[in-house]
Amino acid sequence: MALLKKAFLCSFIIWLIGFILGVHYKIDFTSLNNYGEGVSLFTQKEPLSLSLDILRNNLYVLIFNLTGVVVLGISTAINLVFNGFFLGQMISAGISNLSLGKTILIVLPHSLELLGLWLGGCVGFAGAKMLIQYFVTKDAIREDNLFLLGKVFMVAVLLTVLAAFTEVYVSMRII
User: Fold this and answer.
1) For the chain, how big is the Rg over CA atoms in Å?
2) What is the pTM of this model?
3) DSSP codes joined into one string, 29-77
4) CA pair distance 168, 79, nearest whole angstrom
5) Burial class of residue 83, CB neighbours in 10 A (0-12, 13-18, 19+)
6) Nearest Cα to 15, choosing from 159, 95, 119?
7) Is 76:10 a contact under the CB 8 Å cutoff?
8) Cβ–Cβ contacts within 10 Å for residue 17, how many?
9) What is d(CA 42, CA 75) in angstroms, rounded to the nearest whole number?
10) For this UniProt entry, which segments traverse the membrane (predicted)?
11) DSSP code of 22?
12) Residue 62 CB neighbour total at 10 angstroms
């Protein structure tokens, strides 16, 4: 259990580093798309179809976090930094183009997604630590620890599913 707490904290801190960098490092996205065009792309799709697209994308991110188990947490760390950076960029752009209150309202439904992301990172890091310990000490990985990692990952998946539908049915109404 202590390993999971440390892995979750590590997941959050690595994400937070990316987030802080994203808020402070300005990238001009106007050449790619402006805010209104991006929103209209989302609002033109059927809500269920959009929810499933978001779910698929978020599950890819979650599975990518899980690959950290076999690559010593490196992919998990990269994924967390990238996702933190991207959200930092979006919040920074939102505050620049909208009010702080409107930006918070738009981002708040994503809190379920963030918790799922951090839990997925936790599994990636904790699994990597368990694998390293196995190779160093040759002690078998305990079945109850694997079961616990599986439960945490399933909670992350559940939160990710809820987040995909929340983003469409709540966030899109706010925009």
Assistant:
1) 18
2) 0.86
3) -TTT--HHHHHHHHHTS-HHHHHHHHHHHHHHHHHHHHGGGTTTTHHHH
4) 23
5) buried
6) 119
7) no
8) 16
9) 29
10) 7-25, 59-82, 103-126, 146-170
11) H
12) 23
pLDDT (tens, 9 = 90+) of the chain, 175 residues, equals 789 999 999 999 999 999 999 999 877 655 555 545 555 555 677 888 888 998 999 999 999 999 999 999 999 999 999 999 999 998 988 888 888 888 888 888 788 999 999 999 999 999 999 999 999 998 888 888 899 999 999 999 999 999 988 888 877 666 6
Tokens representing 91? 């919040």
SS3 175: coil
DSSP state of 27: -
- Secondary structure (DSSP) of 71-110: TTTHHHHHHHHHHHHHHHHHHHHHHHHS-HHHHHHHHGGG
